[in-house]
Amino acid sequence: RKLLQALTAGLVLATATGCTYKDFPRLGMPTPTTEEAPIILSLWQGSWAAAIAVGCLVWGLILWSAFFHRRSRTKVEVPPQTRYNMPIEALYTVVPLLIVSVLFYFTARDESKLLDMSKKPDVTVNVVGYQWSWAFNYIEPVPGVSGDAKTDKNLAGIPNRFKDAFPANAGGVYDYGIPGTRNPQNGNPGPTLWLPKGKTVRFVLTSRDVIHSFWVLPFLMKQDVIPGHTNSFQVTPTMEGTFRGKCAELCGQDHSRMLFNVKVVSPERYEQHLKDLAKKGQTGYVPA
What we know:
five-stranded mixed β-sheet; elongated; 32% helix; Immunoglobulin-like; 10 strands
């Protein structure tokens, strides 16, 4: 009866989550929306496959021992005891080391790909985290906007190794949010970061106060935003739409309100958005 109850509970959990058959291979991950996201998804799936294989082996050995070596109803003597079995003890040490080494190799390999900054970006955005919202400095030459991101005093805290990749004479525009900001199109909380589809975007992450974490859910990647330390990574969006983002690091009382939206549009619509920000007077850069 208990087995039937357990199977019923498992069936309910599997069918009541709202997932379709297409969602199961992703094992809880959102649909990837960048060129880089499948790398993370593949690592996630591989880790689960390894965990399931190890789990089945361990559970199988436990069940085998419990079933075949259970106490006999007719024999009461103590069964033979095995002590100081060096081959088994060596196996217990070597196998976990091999498992960890394999996982480390694939993690290091994929991390090096994801954090590779050798490709010149098409778009650079300085993401500024602060309690408790986000600001976005679009480091782009915008018609009618003068200035230079490489010498702008509001970006003085960004190291030169990042500024060297900034476009020349990028006067730039910005957008920002407060905890009560909402996307006017769908009502989602937080400011909206606009990105062009099919273009390589470099995020330069800075913080004004405490540690935050920049996380766009369908990008399958997040990175810490640390005061006094600039982080960076690149993505190439492959799907238009509006996606959710949030702070993934507990950063204070209103951490749960540090939300934002990412709107991926055509390159032409993206350029028009920058011009619209300039018309609103949001030219130059907010302090990084």
